[in-house]
Inverse folding.
C-alpha cells in the first residue's frame, strides 16, 4: 500500500524562542502579583501596628517576628543546657526541625498513597475482598484524623511512628474511596479497547486502569497535602518530642507570640514548597496530562 | 435473506439476533430478528437513523455486548466475547494518552508478550502503511483527528483481524478529511484482505464505500432492506448512478427518520 500524504500535517512547531519569551513574561507577571499580594498583607499588618491597633506583644508584625532570626532559631535547639547559646547550632536545629517534620509528611504521604491505591485496586480486582472490606472503610472514612490521635499514641507510643501514622490515616480512607470511584469512572472506550486487543483482567488493570486513574489520584494527593501538614503538626504538638508542631506548642506555653508567628511562616513556606515539588513530580511522571489540567500557580 | 447462496461459508453470520434492555421505564427492544451473512473481503455498511441499533449490532459482533436472542458466529465459531479476529475502530479517539503512538499501535502485541525491539520495528512498519511514518514517538494529542483514526486503524490491523468493525469512525472529522479517510480506508481494505463492517448515518458515505448497504428501521432495529452497490471503484459522487443510489437510500430512510423523530417526541 502506498503511503497517502498526510491530510493534516503535524501542528507547526512554534519557534521555541517565542514560547520562551511568552513564558518569561508570564513568569514576571506571576511574580509581580505574588509580591504585591504578600506585600499588601504584610503592609496592612504593619500599618495596624503603626497606628497602634495591633499589640506588638500579641500580634507582632512581620518586621518584629522576623527580626531576631537567630534568637528565634535558638528556640528550635533541643539542647537542655540552660544558657548555652550558639548561633551555628541554632540554625542547624532549625533546619533539623523542618527536616524532621518534612520527613514525617513524606513518609506518611508515600505510605498512604501506595497503600490506599493498592487497597482500592484490590477491592475492585477481587470482588469478595471488596465486599468484605468496603463497608468498613466507608464507615471509617468520615472519622476526623484528629480523632485517631489517641489511637496513634496507644499503638505507637511517642516518636516518629504516631506522626507518620496520622498522616497515613488522614490520607488512607479518602484516597481508597477516591481510587475506587476513579476505577469505576475509567472511560468505557479504553476498557473496550483493552478487551478487543485481548487483554486479560490482570492486563486490563495493569496497562489500562492504573495509568488511566493515576492523574486524578495524584490530584487528590495534592489536595490532601495540606491536610497532611495539619495533622502532622497536631501529632507533633501532642507528643512526638520534636518538629514544627512542638515549637508551636512551645510558643503557646511560653506565650511567645513572635515565635508563634515565625513558626507559622515557616510552616506556610514549607507547605508551599511541598506543593511545588509534588507538582513537579506530577509533570514528570504524568507527562500525558496537559499542563493546564495540572493547575498553575 | 435476500442474497445468493455462496459456495464459501460466510465470515460473519447473524441469525435471529435480538437485543433487549431492561430499563426503569420497561423493556427496550434495540434489535429484533437480525439475519445477516457477511462474506470474506466484503465491505458492508450499516445505515440507519440514530438510535436504530446499528452500533449495537456492531458491538454484539465485536463481543462487547451480550445478545438476548439468536446467535452470531465469526469464522464458524460462535461469538461469546471479544476476539482478535475482529478489530474495532471507535467513533472518538481511543488511543491511550499515556502511551506514544508507536506503543499504542503495538499494544495488542505487547499483551501477547512480544518484545520491545520487535514491537518498535513493527510499529514503524504499521505506521508507514497508514502514512504516519514519523509519528511513532509522538503523543496521541500531538496528532490531528484524522491522524489519530489512522493510528487506531494501524493498531487494529496489527493483530491481523479477519474483519474490521468501524463505528462511525469519521463522524468527528471535517468534510475534507473525511473524504480523504474514505479513500484511505478503501486502500486499507484492499491491502489487508479483511472484511469491513462500517456503521454510518451518512448516505453518501454508505454509497461511496459499500459492496452492500444494510438499511435499518427505526427502533426496534430491524433490517429494512439490503441494497447492493455495484458501482466500480473509485466511485464518483457526481455520477448519475451514484445519485440514483443515494436517492433510493434517502427514500428508504425517510420513513424511518420520521418514525424515529415521532418516537423521540412521544418520549419527550
Amino acid at each position: 500500500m502506498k503511503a497517502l500524504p498526510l491530510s493534516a500535517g503535524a501542528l507547526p512547531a512554534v519557534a521555541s524562542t517565542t514560547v520562551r519569551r511568552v513564558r518569561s513574561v508570564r513568569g514576571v507577571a506571576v511574580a509581580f502579583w505574588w509580591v504585591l499580594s504578600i506585600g499588601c498583607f504584610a503592609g496592612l499588618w504593619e500599618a495596624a501596628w503603626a497606628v497602634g491597633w495591633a499589640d506588638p506583644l500579641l500580634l507582632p508584625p512581620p518586621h518584629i517576628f522576623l527580626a531576631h532570626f537567630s534568637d528565634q532559631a535558638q528556640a528550635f535547639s533541643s539542647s537542655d543546657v540552660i544558657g548555652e547559646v550558639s548561633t551555628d547550632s541554632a540554625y542547624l536545629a532549625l533546619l533539623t526541625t523542618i527536616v524532621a517534620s518534612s520527613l514525617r509528611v513524606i513518609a506518611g504521604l508515600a505510605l498512604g498513597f501506595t497503600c490506599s491505591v493498592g487497597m482500592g485496586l484490590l477491592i475492585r480486582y477481587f470482588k469478595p475482598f471488596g465486599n468484605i472490606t468496603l463497608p468498613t472503610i466507608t464507615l471509617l472514612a468520615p472519622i476526623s484524623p484528629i480523632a485517631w490521635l489517641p489511637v496513634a499514641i496507644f499503638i505507637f507510643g511517642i516518636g516518629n511512628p504516631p506522626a507518620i501514622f496520622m498522616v497515613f490515616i488522614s490520607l488512607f480512607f479518602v484516597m481508597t474511596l477516591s481510587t475506587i470511584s476513579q476505577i469505576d469512572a475509567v472511560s468505557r472506550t479504553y476498557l473496550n479497547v483493552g478487551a478487543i486487543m485481548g487483554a486479560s483482567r490482570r492486563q486490563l488493570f495493569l496497562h489500562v486502569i492504573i495509568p488511566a486513574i493515576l492523574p486524578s489520584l495524584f490530584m487528590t494527593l495534592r489536595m490532601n497535602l495540606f491536610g497532611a501538614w495539619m495533622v502532622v503538626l497536631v501529632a507533633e504538638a501532642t507528643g512526638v518530642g520534636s518538629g514544627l508542631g512542638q515549637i508551636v506548642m512551645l510558643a503557646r506555653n511560653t506565650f511567645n507570640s513572635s515565635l508563634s508567628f515565625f513558626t507559622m511562616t515557616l510552616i506556610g513556606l514549607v507547605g508551599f514548597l511541598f506543593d511545588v515539588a509534588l507538582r513537579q513530580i506530577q509533570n514528570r511522571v504524568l507527562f500525558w496530562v496537559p499542563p493546564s489540567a495540572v493547575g498553575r500557580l | 435473506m435476500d442474497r445468493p447462496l455462496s459456495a464459501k461459508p460466510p465470515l460473519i453470520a447473524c441469525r435471529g439476533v435480538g437485543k433487549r434492555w431492561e430499563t426503569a421505564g420497561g423493556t427496550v427492544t434495540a434489535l429484533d430478528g437480525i439475519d445477516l451473512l457477511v462474506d470474506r473481503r466484503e465491505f458492508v455498511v450499516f445505515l440507519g437513523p440514530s438510535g436504530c441499533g446499528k452500533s449495537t449490532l456492531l458491538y454484539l459482533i465485536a463481543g462487547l455486548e451480550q445478545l438476548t436472542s439468536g446467535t452470531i458466529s465469526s469464522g464458524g465459531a460462535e461469538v461469546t466475547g471479544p476476539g482478535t479476529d475482529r478489530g474495532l475502530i471507535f467513533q472518538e479517539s481511543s488511543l491511550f494518552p499515556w502511551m506514544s503512538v508507536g506503543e499504542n499501535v503495538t499494544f495488542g502485541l505487547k499483551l501477547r508478550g512480544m518484545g520491545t525491539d520487535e514491537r518498535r520495528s513493527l510499529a514503524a512498519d504499521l505506521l508507514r502503511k497508514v502514512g504516519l511514518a514519523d509519528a511513532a514517538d509522538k503523543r496521541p494529542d500531538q496528532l490531528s483527528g484524522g491522524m489519530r483514526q489512522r493510528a487506531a486503524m494501524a493498531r487494529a490491523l496489527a493483530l491481523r483481524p479477519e474483519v474490521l468493525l468501524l463505528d462511525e469512525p469519521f463522524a468527528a472529522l471535517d468534510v475534507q478529511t473525511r473524504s480523504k479517510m474514505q479513500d484511505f480506508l478503501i486502500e486499507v481494505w484492499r491491502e489487508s484482505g479483511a472484511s469491513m463492517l462500517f456503521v454510518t448515518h451518512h448516505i453518501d458515505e454508505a454509497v461511496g464505500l459499500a459492496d452492500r448497504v444494510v438499511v435499518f428501521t427505526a427502533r426496534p432495529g430491524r433490517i429494512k432492506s439490503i441494497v447492493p452497490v455495484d458501482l466500480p471503484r473509485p466511485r464518483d459522487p457526481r455520477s448519475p448512478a451514484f445519485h440514483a443510489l443515494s436517492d433510493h437510500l434517502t427514500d428508504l430512510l425517510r420513513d424511518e427518520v420520521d418514525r424515529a423523530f415521532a418516537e423521540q417526541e412521544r418520549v419527550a
User: Anything to note?
Assistant: Residues 16-54 of chain A form one domain. Chain A has twelve helices and no strands.
